Amino acid sequence: MSLGPPDLVGPTGPAYKTLIHSLMDSVMGFQSDDIVPMNQVRASFTELADQVRRGREKLITRNGESYVALIDARRLDHYHRLEREHIHLALIEEATRGLADVEAGRTSGVAELRARYRTSPKRRR
Prior knowledge:
By secondary structure, this protein is mainly alpha-helical. The chain has two domains: 5-71, no CATH class; 75-117. Helix content is 56%, strand content 11%. The protein has a three-stranded mixed β-sheet, with helices on one face. α2 (38-53) links the parallel β1 (35-37) and β2. The chain is elongated, with a radius of gyration of 26 Å.
């Protein structure tokens, strides 16, 4: 059997699957046995959970496509902390830029902004 370019055309060819597994191993840190079809998850969930707890993340596929990931709860907490930290850093950066604008005199009055964006003042009820 030839593993030339025709096998790479669709997601069912063996060369395509080998390429995907190779890319996953090198880029994402997944090994080929970390990619698990949904029907295998149902049959061996406890073992997969034990492997995840020991540090091996699992990518669960459904119909040959990535579906969900199985990761350790501690790592998920870590990812959420990183996400919150990123948001806080972005807010600090925006505030710093705003303060620099004020110090440099790059400010606008309310009337000027309303004219620029053509908004009318809110009516009080």
